[in-house]
Amino acid sequence: MSANASAAELLATVERSPQAVAVHDRAAWVDLFAPDGRVEDPVGSRPHIGRAAIERFYDTFIGPNDIVFHVDHDVVLGAGVYRDLTLDTTMSTGVTLRVPMHLRYDLTQVGGEWKIGRLYAHWELPVMVAQLLGAGGRGLGAAVKLAPQLLGNQGVGGALGFARGFRRVGAAGKRAATGLLEAAGRGDVAGVRAVLSPRAVVEWPVGSDVGHAEFVKRVRGLEVGKTIAAGRFVTVSVRTPTERGIAELEVDGRRVVALRGFVAEDRTVH
């Protein structure tokens, strides 16, 4: 199978997710996952593992709503797809939330078919809640309806697990991540080293370990775009003179302990 055919198959598998969501096809959506599939949505919350848990996730967060995916860019690397997008979620009361997001799909083959092994949804729960509460009566009504759905489908433990999504690296973590990338973009190796922890993992692209100087050389001219803090991770839409994709940084305090570039050739560059 050619590399291009493989990439096309992976993208086709991923694209079946918004297709199933659009027509509220619960079975088709859940069937996209491997038997031991894992959904972490948002990253930092308690994961949903296995078919039954993923069905309950669907019933709580997808089924009652109308969801539209606005995809800006996809990166396919190995057996994974990283999607840069915005999600419009219209809840039962009519309020629509617009959520910037990075979706990471780690795919695996099961019985000769591509399935989603892991789904990591990077988005900011506090931002979504602020939108909901700022939407007036319809937003408040949606929040009131969501609470019993959450408790009924997920139980108290699941509701508390979802609330873990509020714990993020926050503004300081974002500044550390974007500061590192901006330093790299202007060729400042010392600035990069000042933010990296002593044993930090740097892969650019993911799977390719590089030293600090080589990393800076590869990303000279990098531009920082959409930035999301979820759990202990910061994800950043990035562009270099030749590549485009998403940088995934794991942050501990104000230091970056891992940096992975999910980037590929930018075909819009001529």
From TrEMBL:
Transmembrane segments: none annotated. The lineage of its organism: Bacteria, Bacillati, Actinomycetota, Actinomycetes, Mycobacteriales. This is SnoaL-like domain. Signal peptide: none annotated. InterPro entries: NTF2-like_dom_sf, SnoaL-like. Residues 14-106 form the SnoaL-like domain. It comes from Nocardia africana.
